[in-house]
Design a protein that fits this description.
mainly beta
Length: about 80
């Protein structure tokens, strides 16, 4: 196990409470960054179909650091 910090995966907000991740899967402790904020997934993701998941997140860096929220996450290889 490495002590080096893990870089958050790229992400983009696609709607209110909806985030597209540049990842192949969604797991607890996955970190991602979008629009100057960094989040960590803290609950087991619930598969709602179509490559979309509901999960609880904590903002680890940004204007509302420490805030907890639930969001719909969608996986994809690119977030252009």
């Amino acid at each position: 196990m490495s002590d080096e910090p893990v870089e958050p995966v790229e992400a983009v907000r696609v709607g209110p409470g909806q985030i597209l991740l540049a990842a192949e899967r969604v797991t607890v402790d996955l970190m991602f960054a979008t629009a100057g904020q960094t989040f960590r997934i803290v609950s087991p993701p619930v598969d709602v179909g179509g490559g979309k998941y509901l999960a609880t997140l904590v903002e680890t860096a940004g204007p509302s650091e420490g805030r907890q929220l639930t969001a719909q996450l969608q996986v994809g290889r690119r977030v252009d």
